[in-house]
Amino acid sequence: MQSQEIAGHTGVSPAETAKVLQLLVLGGFVTSRRGSKGGFQLARRPEQITTGEIVEFFLAKHSVEPEGNCPVMCALQETVTPGQEAFARLTLAEVTARFPRRSQKDLAVPAGAK
């Protein structure tokens, strides 16, 4: 699938989609092929990739080290941990089964909303 098509399905700008796809290639989650028949595809089957792996990759790539016993960072860690555990079990196959492709109309931002 080409990045423009992915951007259209997700409602994310083509430029931002291209940046995320580059990171996903770097993380080994997708592969890319150049050329007129090129595009991106998953590096493994969707049942073999968890959202937790992807979240961990992005957190490791752009992590912020907590400052000792900072109450804000401690509270954030306590809040985030259950979500990370759920993401660790959730596969891409499950995500796509729960949320079928939406049309451009469904992805449109309502007037006045930002």
3D structure, described in words:
The two termini are 28 Å apart. The longest helix has 19 residues, at 71-89. It is globular and about 55 Å long. It is mainly alpha-helical and 114 residues long. It is built from six helices and two strands, in the order ααββαααα. It has two domains: 1-43, Winged helix-like DNA-binding domain superfamily/Winged helix DNA-binding domain (Arc Repressor Mutant, subunit A), CATH 1.10.10; 46-101, no CATH class. α1 crosses α2 and α3 runs antiparallel to α4 (71-89).
Task: Write down how many β-strands occur, each being a DSSP E stretch of 2 or more residues.
Answer: 2
SS element count, helices: 6
The residue-averaged pLDDT reads 80
In total, how many domains does the architecture comprise? 2
Strand content: 5-15%
Distance between the termini: 28 Å
What integer value in Å does the Rg equal?
Answer: 17 Å
Strand order of the largest sheet: 1-2
